[in-house]
């Protein structure tokens, strides 16, 4: 399943109709959830039936396409299923009990209620709201896909306009040339990541660089009178700035993950619990700005697309254990150089990157013998002992 996104170009009245569609979808979702709360033990199929009942009870709810109402109910169903899954898995902390939504930003259609023009450059909504025809602005081409391959159309409201996302049921596969390389990735705040070869990628810190402008725009919002037109304009400017930072961060994560996957046949990275790490209020902003979770998601995605092996390993003791001899060398976060009694002296993150690579190879079922050589069936042999020795000598020279 791939998603292609286009910006919708229309009139102001059409945008107001889309807002009504989004509010209706939110209403259906909340009503469906309320029915589940009031009737414990109800089956999921009964939540679909509630969509038809709501259409009869509320005339304006009936304007929304029937499949769009079902898609709104599915959002409540997914929240319920996630809650039960967390309970069964005995997840620590909050289990994510389904909540009512106040600020929904999207409405989703399935295979009906919309129509593409013959040139596939315009999108028309045909349900009771009659939003009309919108021009699709984007660089992608829908001509490559058959109409029956488009399974869903999602309309998203953002700070800079309205967008249509086409969910297409095709499997993306890209050809890749084997490189014979393997890499372990240790993410951090000083550098975005350090790999097992000692190479680093600088941390862009998009939020930190935009903080001054964000604070200025936030002050403008606070100074405006509530409910006024000027306040709404100030909120729009602030939202567009936040959106720009979000897009910069996403673009960096995509390009960095793509480069790592294409240049290596085997990639191992830390499976960090970012949700727990941001509880440290001194580092929460920097951790969120780094977007390690988003980077990991794109690593997994590109690994499947290019047919590469991407392994997530547990981060415990990757910084403390020596990559040369395996002994534990205790160090605090402020200690940035790994110094071991065996003679290994290298950067803390470089040492962690090598340990992550070794753990990833073991987790993938690639045997390591006592000499330190790694047998990799597809790429020949990688000598980890030589890798550590080269890394150590490079830093000590």
Strand neighbour order, sheet with most strands? 2-6-7-1-5-4-3
What share of residues is helical?
40-55%
The largest sheet, given as strand count, sense and whether it forms a barrel, is: 7 strands, antiparallel
Helix count equals: 11
The structural class is alpha+beta
Radius of gyration: 26 Å
- Spans of at least 5 consecutive residues whose pLDDT stays below 50 are 369-397
Strand percentage: 15-25%
Count of distinct strands: 16
What is the residue-averaged pLDDT?
85
Jot down its keywords.
397 residues; seven-stranded antiparallel β-sheet; five-stranded mixed β-sheet; 11 helices; 44% helix; globular
Account of the protein in words:
- By secondary structure, this protein is α+β, with helices and mostly antiparallel strands.
- 44% of the residues lie in helices and 20% in strands.
- The protein contains eleven helices and 16 strands.
- It has helices at 12-38, 44-57, 59-62, 66-88, 206-223, 229-262, 274-277, 284-290, 292-305, 348-363, 384-396, and strands at 2-9, 106-109, 114-116, 122-125, 132-137, 150-158, 161-168, 182-187, 191-195, 200-202, 266-270, 309-313, 337-339, 345-347, 373-376, 380-383.
- Strands 2-6-7-1-5-4-3 form a seven-stranded antiparallel β-sheet. A five-stranded mixed β-sheet has the order 10-9-8-11-12. Strands 13-14 form a two-stranded antiparallel sheet.
- α1 (12-38) packs across α2, α1 (12-38) crosses α4 (66-88) and α6 packs across α9 (292-305).
- The two termini are 50 Å apart.
- Residues 369-397 have low confidence and may be disordered.
